[in-house]
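Crash report, auto-generated. Payload:
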Amino acid sequence: MKDFWKKANFKGHLLTAISYMIPIVCGAGFIIAIGMAFGGKSQDALVMGKFDFFQAMATLGGKALGLLPVIISTGIAFSIAGKPGIAPGFVTGLAAVSISAGFIGGIIGGYIAGWLAFAVLKYVKVPSWAKGLMPTLIVPFIASLLSGLLMVYVIGTPVAWFTDWLTRVLTGLNGASNLLLGAVIGVLSIVDFGGPINKTVFAFALTLQAQGINGPVTALQLTNTATPIGFGLAYLIAKLLRKNIYTQDEVETLKSAVPMGVVNIVEGSIPIVMNDIVRGIVAAGLGGMCEGAVLMTMTNGQGATVPFGGVLMLPTMGHNWWVGLLAIAVNVLVTGIVYALIKKNLTAEEVAGVSTASASQEEEELDLDDIQISE
Amino acid sequence: MKIVGVTACTIGIAHTYLAQQKLEDAAKAAGDDIKIETQGTIGVENALTQQEIDDADIAILAVDVKIQGEERFANHKVVKVSTETAIKSPNKLIAKMHEIAGK
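Recovered output after restart:
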């Protein structure tokens, strides 16, 4: 069974599709945010002479974001079957949009389209004179037809119900539930620093954003933004307490980790956390929890229209921009103060870097489950 | 030992390059020649030629997503891991690759 999951590689295909989707969401998200900030509204159709500039911008972004199910579906099918997966993935994604199965429909449709294309390539045998028809006609036709019809007649409606239900529940959350959801997302988004838990939460939050619920992904990314800055602040607070908490190497790392954090890249702070994993995660997790709770409660689940960008996300939050800023500040303060307090005081030799000399011995055990070898 | 490899992560701006850096450092520490191609959001950088791939003893793919040109490695010893493994345990990974390559 474990082998099946590894072979099927559900996560890998989804991550590939997300990697193609992120630039689209960021581009379109900023365009719609600027359009809406100046009073534009996304239109169904742009009729010459009946719209202004900002409506045009809002519509540009809105149309692109409305097609995210198509993009995720095409991306997943491409990841599974290569180039022949693109056509069935595209058709099935559009079917998911038509039947209101949304982003979740797009994800499921992408897997079906990709595996069907893969199966047709593998099992349908044609005479040699028809070889050229395989990639141009047979695969796209059969795989698109089957997966498109499956979407329309079998999967689409239940997924549409589920999506509708989930959207209603999450948009209907009140203060306390928003606080809890925000706190949970805040913790989970930082607890393994870009590892599998973070990726899963990210996929979930992106799914919600594609349905128009922006709070969760904002809570997640502002934590990633604030954490490295928090570790930077811990240095200053520790100095006030007359404590040395970082080695010289770590201080050097911080000089790039903090500016990277400002633009949403949390990974710069990984070396610091790795050197003291439990305390680092406690400080980051507590900060994330407070950030998520503040953000989701005070904005009532609203957030940025883009899923990435650090402080650049704030302008896309509309009138809630100051809440985003406050949430970051809370996270930075909590992480900084907690880390400065719980971290051990280092001796002068440790600060000079003696303890990091044996880095290769302290390295984590190799995760043999994660290695695939082919010869 | 000659090593070639590709790194690629989901967002394509951080893990890709961290994994490259860690693998290069670890390989150099072990006295190996290494060249890592990165496939970030910006596209392919430090591209490997077919000649370089053919000359290598072993290839490492530290990838979370589907990469371009995986077929270039079709007839080679290939070790595939996530970027996370390459970042967390680069030296042990290189040691393991020595074992697999038999050098």
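Post-recovery validation: Chain B has a mean pLDDT of 90.
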